[in-house]
Specification:
Layout (H helix, E strand, L loop, with lengths): L3 E9 L3 E8 L5 E10 L3 H5 L2 H8 L8 E7 L2 E7 L3 E2 H7 L6 H20 L2 E2 L8 E4 L2 E4 L6 E2 L18 H4 L8 H16 L9 H12 L14 H4 L11 H4 L5 H10 L10 H5 L17 H6 L3 E2 L5 E2 L7 H12 L23 H4 L5 E5 L15 E3 L19 E2 L6 E4 L10 H4 L1
Parallel strand pairs: 13-14
Antiparallel strand pairs: 1-2, 2-3, 3-5, 4-5, 4-13, 6-8, 7-10, 8-9, 11-16, 12-15
Bound molecules: adenosine-5'-triphosphate (ATP).
Adenosine-5'-triphosphate binds next to strand 1, strand 2, strand 3 and strand 5.
Length: 433
């Protein structure tokens, strides 16, 4: 790691701290993610979800993992550097984004997702903080929760940010699909117009309530395998007057409203795929004049809300090493990434080498270059390091659970002044936390 000079901290997430750094040899600016847990051998490193998925995904709208370094049992991911995340961008903007700008970002997000889903992965934690932006380029980041589609359900080890969590996940459906990413895309699309999260739930139960307030009562039969269907049955629907989406997102065109409606469908099978979204009329409309432009001042003043808590339930833990780590790190090191913020390709050959001799030597510096030197990777040999390189990957296309388990909630105490939609929930938070 002596080849990199740390310049500043960019974020402190659940799994690692991210720093802006410069490669002293090439002067390239990179983002270094230092993992919080120790790694005592390479097997552990290469089995990480983030490594497994990012190694196989090479797309202009997916963040590039350039290199992996293990030094003194610490693991560093070297990523291409991006200037902002989408949350910061919304926070720092003086006025609303134009529909043209939103279209540009959404189209890139959908192209990245289309490629990811086609290649057999789903992200599972899409949120504005995980979408990185430099100028008008958007890339999907943070593959710590990514899953292979071929992996078999039940997917019970899921910890994601509540506001963007699909109903089938809130209801603990034993199996779910890439449609959970499409739900998050719908929620992010709405937020890009208003700079307010559309479903700002304060607990899992409140999250379902807030969804009902916008979408109305669901058809229970959509979730035959849901373990927590009682959460829906407990809601007093006569108190709910489903909202008109164009009142909630007043500055969106009818095409945008229609796309949000389709993406945020209760029924996962009714949500369009990323590929289908890109064919939606929203991406074919020209200039749109908002019906009632959003007043940025009003947005900023509307309210101060807390960031969604990462909730951790016993059922969130899986049997894999990294799952257990994720849980433990959440418990002892709550994410503080936003403190201070206001608001296979099949059959592909991989030339991976495992060097057992190095596994026990915690002092060795081992790096693993994922891209050839001409692609910004390493160009010079590094002393006392072992380089593990892969062949280039061609771009193939451009509350508590209802169980008796413990619920650890409110791990994040950081406050954002991210404006919230004013919807009151009849549920006492304390009842559910
Ligand atoms: N390549 C990058 N370029 C610039 N900033 C980045 C990059 N990668 C991550 N960041 C910043 O660091 C933050 C945390 O990164 P990341 O989400 O990968 O960490 P994490 O530990 O998995 O976080 P989380 O708690 O969200 O799961 C991001 O929200 C972003 O602001």
């Amino acid at each position: 790691m002596e080849r990199y000079k740390i310049l500043e901290e960019l974020g402190d997430g659940t799994c690692g701290s991210v720093y802006k750094a410069i490669n002293i040899q090439t002067s390239e600016i990179v983002a270094v993610k230092k993992m919080k847990r120790k790694f005592y051998d390479w097997d552990e490193c290469v089995n990480l979800r983030e490594v497994k998925s990012l190694r196989r995904l090479n797309h202009p709208n997916i963040i590039k993992l350039k290199e992996i370094v293990r030094e003194y049992n610490e693991l560093f991911f070297i990523f291409e550097y991006m200037e902002h995340n989408l949350y910061q961008l919304m926070r720092e903007r003086q006025g609303p984004l134009s529909e043209e700008e939103i279209r540009g970002m959404m189209s890139q997000l959908l192209q990245g997702l289309k490629y990811m889903h086609r290649n057999g992965y789903f992200h599972r934690d899409l949120k504005p903080e995980n979408l990185l932006v430099t100028k008008d380029i958007l890339k999907i980041a943070d593959f710590g929760l990514a899953r292979e589609l071929s992996s078999s359900p039940p997917y019970t080890d899921y910890v994601s940010t509540r506001w963007y969590r699909a109903p089938e996940v809130l209801l603990q459906s034993s199996s779910y699909s890439p449609a959970i990413d499409m739900w998050a895309v719908g929620a992010i699309l709405a937020e890009l117009f208003t700079f307010c999260p559309i479903f700002p739930g304060e607990s899992e139960m409140d999250q379902l309530y807030k969804i009902c307030c916008v979408l109305g009562r669901p058809d229970w039969t959509i979730f035959p395998e849901a373990r927590n269907i009682s959460r829906l049955l407990d809601i007093c629907y006569f108190e709910i007057m489903p909202a008109n989406l164009s009142d909630i997102v007043p500055n969106a065109s009818p095409e945008a409203i229609d796309l949000i409606k389709q993406l945020c469908s209760w029924d996962p099978t009714k949500r369009p795929t990323a590929e289908q979204c890109l064919q939606h009329p929203f991406f074919n409309v020209g200039f749109w004049i908002p019906r009632s432009p959003v007043d940025p001042l009003q947005l900023t003043l509307s309210s101060i809300g807390s960031k969604p808590n990462l909730e951790l339930n016993l059922w969130d833990f899986g049997s894999q090493t990294d799952d257990c780590f994720l849980g433990l790190s959440l418990a002892v090191t709550p994410s503080a990434s936003n403190i201070g913020m206001v608001h296979k390709n099949e059959g592909q050959k991989e030339d991976m080498m495992f060097c057992s001799g190095f596994q026990e030597d915690s002092k060795q510096s081992v790096f693993w270059s994922l891209f050839p030197p001409e692609d910004g990777g390493l160009s010079a040999p590094v002393e006392s390091s072992l380089s593990l390189s892969f062949g280039t990957i061609p771009n193939s296309s451009s509350g508590v659970s209802q169980s008796t388990g413990f619920g650890i909630a409110s791990l994040q105490s950081n406050m954002l002044d991210r404006p919230l939609l004013a919807m009151s929930s009849p549920f006492q938070q304390s009842h559910w936390l």
